[in-house]
Every structure is written in structure tokens, then in C-alpha cells.
Amino acid sequence: MFFLSSRLDETSLELPQGPNGLYTYFLAQGLCGAADVNNDRIISASEIYNFVSAKVSSWASQIPHNQHPTIWGKFDQGMSVLDWR
Predict the structure, then answer these.
(1) What are the residues whose beta carbons fall under 8 Å from the beta carbon of 69, sequence distance 6 or more?
(2) CA atoms of 45 and 48, how far apart (whole Å)
(3) With DSSP H G I counted as helix, E B as strand and the rest as coil, what are the percentages for the chain, rounded to 5?
(4) What 3-state class would DSSP assign to 37?
(5) In sequence order, which residues have a C-beta less than 8 Å from that of residue 68 and are 6 or more positions away?
(6) I want to staple 2 with a disulfide (CB 3.0 to 4.6 A). Which of 14, 32, 66, 72 is the partner?
């Protein structure tokens, strides 16, 4: 599974108030539990992608800027990315 910060024809934004980019900021939030929509203490590939993609795209559009994280590869959408049960 490849999880990338933006599409090929886009640039990735840096946060003005922090050391990380927009993608890294929301990826960290998601992996800390914000992406666990069903509260099973497992973050699946689809949960982390849906969370990060929605947050990054929404935040970037307010600038306005186009940034759409993308996921690529052969994998099960339900694959566990993080399990802290």
C-alpha cells in the first residue's frame, strides 16, 4: 500500500505554524485514534485514507489550494494499519 500526500500534478502544503506538512499532521491525528470511526481500536486502510483525505482536501481548499492524498497498490481496504487492542 502506498499512501501519498498528493496527486502527481499537485504540491503538498506545509503548515505555517508547525514543522510538518498538512498531510503528516492529519496522518498523525488519524493514527492517534481520530480515524477509528467504528471505535474498534483498529485503524484500517480505508479508515486512515478516508480521514486524511477528507481533512487535507478540506483544509487545503480553504487556502485555496488543490491537495488530494492518494492511495495506491493491491491491498484489502480492511487491512489493519494500526491495532492497539
Answers:
(1) 3, 4, 5, 6, 23, 49, 52, 53, 56, 57
(2) 5
(3) 35, 20, 45
(4) coil
(5) 6, 7, 10, 53, 56, 57
(6) 72
Per-residue model confidence as pLDDT tens digits over 35-80: 999 999 999 999 999 999 999 999 999 999 999 999 999 999 999 9
Look up residue 2 and give its three cell numbers. Answer: 502506498
Give the Cα separation of 48 and 50 in Å (integer).
Answer: 6
**What is the identity of the amino acid at 80?**
S
Q: What are phi and psi of 58, to 5 degrees?
A: -65, -50
Q: What is the pTM of this model?
A: 0.93
Please determine, for residue 15, whether its predicted confidence score (pLDDT) is greater than 90: no
